[in-house]
Write a structure and sequence with these properties.
The chain has 529 residues and is α/β, with parallel strands linked by helices. It has helices at residues 3-13, 33-54, 69-73, 81-103, 124-136, 153-163, 182-197, 215-223, 244-252, 257-270, 280-291, 312-324, 354-359, 388-405, 420-440, 449-474, 481-487, 494-506; strands spanning 14-17, 22-25, 58-60, 65-66, 116-120, 144-148, 170-176, 206-210, 227-230, 299-304, 326-328, 334-337, 341-342, 364-371, 381-383, 386-387, 410-415, 479-480, 511-514, 524-527. Helix 11 crosses helix 15 (420-440). It is globular, with a radius of gyration of 26 Å. The relative contact order is 0.12.
């Protein structure tokens, strides 16, 4: 395609939202008009299904749940007056609590104000708040935020060591819908112990964000925590950033959550139109479908050209991959759907994996995230008439051009600046695009059976560990691995038993291994008496 034709294609497919100053360019995806026409029936169904979703249809039949994250930024859309009131009251509760924390009306024992936030969560309960904090937190926030988002003891120690001198003035947010998810539960128990070790009252520093009447909710109330905020059962973790999960930590950091909600609401409105070329989320879904032949055959590489958006690709990994990565479609057919997402930032990647992107395996399509504003205020010239921001923009445009010339397709999303309104709009855009794409490929984007299967498998391993330790404690003589497995009633799990015992031995948990650990068949196992 010559330059004139390419310029015309750019104009034909450029989406612009005047209210948001938002651009979406899909012209460098090489679909043609025949493809777009063939996709129209699928999009007609996607538009209708999304309308039904917002109206309160049961979109997650596995759990008999509605999916209503859209109502969080427009409570008038909630299907009942009670739900609308709950959304409004929760937002007001967040703002009132935040104001009291900032003023010092709510403060820790022995200190005039809280200085830090320790957020304990997993998955969407961590990734959304982490992305928003990285993108939007002021340089000197009223409370600095820290995260425990894994069950890694060394990682937990690192965070707690960093907070050691300020633990007494740290506000702890424990985020878990059920209260039983192992990772946040483990983090909470570890943090509780840290407070006890420093003779501090954990409850007077703690807030729960959880489902109503969950185990965590009951614990927080019985122990006298500062307060609790609700996690609605109609909001999934990966779409929870506009709920108390994301809004409370954002507000505490001094981020304007009303602006974030307003940006999401405005983008939601733009993505409700049934006109494909006038709907930016539909254009994204169309491009994703084209890139991977509707089967995820190509990965999505996300390159934000702004340091503050570094975590956007990580946030999108969960949103896209957990939503779309499904073995079965809605008809029960085995389809193995999904789109792999990865990325870092530009122009860092000019010196990392862009070499492969341009000349290596063409198993991807790119999404460039462009921010028009370089910085607040004027910029120094690094060359006559050229600033660092000009270089960044030039590198984006040059990479886009070089990749397209080598048959690599790309999408470019452009926002005016990184602020709460535009971050809210970006989140809403991709939430809707995932919903549309799920309909296009006939999968349920709002459940995660694979995640649940992983949790069950982990629970089975821990149960096996208990049985193995019971066997060893009851025996007076060392046993071979085969004997341990046989006595534990798990002869088919001998490899898992070997790994469990190796882990316990490495952590001085009372397991004695005699023999060569690299030759499992030589080992004799016992426990310290």
């Amino acid at each position: 395609m010559d330059a004139a034709a390419l310029w015309q294609r750019y104009q034909d497919w450029l989406y612009y939202h005047e209210g948001l100053g938002f651009y979406l360019d899909v012209s460098r995806m090489r679909f043609d008009n025949d493809f777009v026409e063939a996709m129209q029936p699928k999009f007609e169904k996607a538009f209708k299904d999304m309308d039904a979703l917002e109206a309160g249809a049961i979109a997650n039949p596995d759990e008999n749940r509605m999916v209503g994250h859209y109502w969080l930024r427009n409570p008038d859309l909630a299907p009942t007056a009670a739900l609308k009131q709950e959304i409004v009251e929760t937002l007001e509760q967040i703002e009132a609590f935040t104001a009291k924390v900032h003023s010092g009306e709510i403060h820790p024992p022995g200190a005039p104000k809280f200085t830090d936030i320790l957020s304990i969560g997993i998955g969407g309960s961590a990734l959304g708040p982490q992305f928003v904090a990285s993108a939007l937190a002021p340089s000197f926030p009223p409370l600095a935020i820290h995260f425990i988002d894994n069950s890694d003891p060394a990682g937990i120690d690192r965070v707690l060591t960093h907070l050691k001198d300020r633990l007494s003035s740290t506000l702890v947010l424990v985020i878990s819908k059920s209260g039983g998810t192992p990772e946040p539960r483990n983090g909470m128990i570890e943090v509780k112990k840290a407070y006890a070790d420093h003779n501090l009252e954990f409850a007077q520093n703690a807030v729960a964000i959880t489902g109503k009447d969950s185990n965590l909710d009951k614990m927080a109330k019985s122990e006298g925590w500062l307060t609790t905020f609700p996690m609605e059962d109609w909001v999934g973790g990966r779409t929870s950033e506009m709920s108390a999960v994301g809004l409370l930590p954002a507000a505490l950091q001094g981020i304007d959550i009303r602006d974030m909600l307003a940006g999401a609401k405005e983008m939601d409105a733009a993505t409700r139109t049934h006109q494909l070329k006038e709907n930016p989320a539909a254009l994204l879904a169309l491009s994703w479908y084209f890139a991977g032949n509707g089967r995820g055959e190509k990965d999505m590489v996300v390159l934000p050209y702004k340091d503050s958006l570094l975590l956007f690709s990580r946030y999108l990994q969960q949103l896209v991959m957990e939503s779309l990565g499904k073995e079965k479609d809605l008809d029960g057919n085995t389809v193995y759907q999904g789109i792999a997402v990865y990325g870092n930032k530009g122009s860092t990647d000019q010196h990392a994996y862009v070499q492969q992107l341009r000349e290596g395996v063409p198993n991807f399509f790119l999404t460039f995230i462009e921010v028009l504003e370089d910085r607040q205020g004027s910029s120094v010239e690094v060359e006559p008439g050229v600033t660092s921001g000009d270089y960044l923009s030039g590198l984006l445009q040059g990479t886009r051009k070089a990749l397209y010339e080598n048959q690599r397709n790309s999408i470019t999303v452009t926002i005016p600046q990184v602020n709460p309104r535009y971050v809210g709009a970006l989140i809403a855009l991709y939430e809707r695009a995932v919903g549309f794409y799920g309909v296009l490929v006939n999968v349920n984007a709002y459940h995660q059976p694979g995640v649940e299967a992983g949790k069950k498998a982990a629970a089975a391993i821990l149960d096996l560990q208990k049985r193995v330790m019971q066997v060893l404690q009851e025996e007076n003589a060392p046993l071979s691995l085969a004997q341990v497995a046989q006595k534990a009633g798990a002869s088919e799990e001998i490899e898992a038993i070997y790994k469990l015992l190796r882990h316990l031995h490495a952590n001085q948990r009372g397991v004695v291994l005699d023999g060569h650990v690299g030759e499992p068949s030589t080992l004799k196992v016992s426990v310290q008496r």
